[in-house]
Amino acid sequence: MKIIEKMVQQDIIQKENKEWMEFGLRQAVHIMGNWCLVICIGLLFQLEIWQSLFFYFSYCIVRIFAGGYHAKTRPGCYICSMICIALAFLIYQQITINKIVCCLLYMIAVIMIICYSPMDNPNKRLSVVEKVHYRKIVRCVLLLYSLLFAGTMCISFYRMYVLSLLAVLFAGIMVFAGLLQEKISIHR
Predict the structure, then answer these.
(1) Phi, psi of 121 (to 5 degrees)
(2) What is the pLDDT of residues 20-58, one digit of tens each?
């Protein structure tokens, strides 16, 4: 990356940190690209920008700590993620869901995530200490989202509680898909 090379030449960063800086810059560009793509997908489904960002942020936070299905390649992961997001936005746009069904689906997703997370990544297995740590974090995150979900449901802020449901539901689906992925790889 030319910008990093110039920073090394100008002694802004040390040569030994060059690889880390390049990695960080690539990650930042990748993350910003994801956010922009999510906004574009949301706009295609006539969601407001805040709705797209709220869903994506909520979904990502749960997915980071809960784990679940992992594609074998980065492009595969990217495509799978964008399909899930588009599907969630399509569902959000097309259905009206009552509070009882919404609560039941939310509880099923939370139970699934609590029971089976954190899921190992086939490329990097978690140690026992890491599993305990991520289990605590995912439970705290789910508690916060559950409070948000309940609060927005109490004040009948439909758009917010349905987006919360979809974020947790799709994270739960990815945990379930991760279980299937693990079972299939064991039988091979």
Answers:
(1) -95, 130
(2) 888 888 888 888 999 999 999 999 999 999 999 999 999
Cα–Cα distance measured from residue 21 to residue 29, given in angstroms and rounded to the nearest whole number: 12
46: left (phi over 0), alpha (psi -120 to 50) or beta: left
Please state, as a whole number, how many other Cβ atoms lie within 10 Å of the Cβ of residue 63.
Answer: 22
Residue numbers of the chain with a pLDDT score lower than 50: none
- As a whole number of angstroms, the distance between CA 47 and CA 90 comes to 10
Structure tokens at 116: 């089976």
Which DSSP state fits 155? T
Convert 133-166 to b/e letters by CB count within 10 Å (16 or more is b).
Answer: ebbebbbebbeebeebbeebbeeeeeebbbbbbb
Whole-angstrom Cα distance, residue 77 to residue 40? 18
User: Which residues on adjacent β-strands are paired with residue 121?
Assistant: 124
Residue-wise DSSP of 80-145: HHHHHHHHHHHHHHH----HHHHHHHHHHHHHHHHHHPSPPBTTBPPPHHHHHHHHHHHHHHHHHH
Euclidean distance between CA atoms 109 and 104, whole angstroms: 9
Q: Tell me how far apart the alpha carbons of residues 113 and 59 are, in angstroms, rounded to a whole number.
A: 12
Residue 170, both tokens? 């799709």
